[in-house]
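Q: Could you write out the predicted structure for this multi-component system? I'm mainly interested in how the pieces pack against one another.
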Amino acid sequence: NAGVTQTPKFQVLKTGQSMTLQCAQDMNHNSMYWYRQDPGMGLRLIYYSASEGTTDKGEVPNGYNVSRLNKREFSLRLESAAPSQTSVYFCASSGLANTEAFFGQGTRLTVV
Amino acid sequence: GQSLEQPSEVTAVEGAIVQINCTYQTSGFYGLSWYQQHDGGAPTFLSYNALDGLEETGRFSSFLSRSDSYGYLLLQELQMKDSASYFCAVRHRDDKIIFGKGTRLHILP
């Protein structure tokens, strides 16, 4: 099984550019998540989707939008990138409430 | 608000035992989880406590006390490969998963 697949792995954007980070899981999980990780800040939740067709804000949603395209796919969009969005982004998915979350390998994004 | 507090760094000696604590200020969650992350890698699941008490998985054990809003991860027989960051996390009943800021474990030979 591929598990959770994120694309791209690396990206450099100029300030003001837009991009979409893609995430897909093949484990038939209901819940999917987007996190950003910055040094010393741990994993901060941007948005999550508890089921197909629903999305909710996390801890740091400003500057981002998400789409739960179907049960497998959950994308994260930066409409106008800012240097403060330079970070490592992780997508994760999880099944039932008491099961583990599985993470993709991350996207390292630099905004210059 | 919701927050989980962990020490930022812990240092221990190879072969020893180390405990990483996690205190939280939240409610209405299913349980406390622990994740490991090596430099440049993705977090991976280690352990989960739904109920109060100790859960053991090989060299790793995790403990939860809901009455004390406290949990810990215990690593025994430390190996150099255990050098990593460790995160506690809670899953709320609305499916939101919140992580602590992580504890970087340094292991000395």
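A: Regarding packing and overall arrangement: The longest strand of chain A covers residues 31-38.
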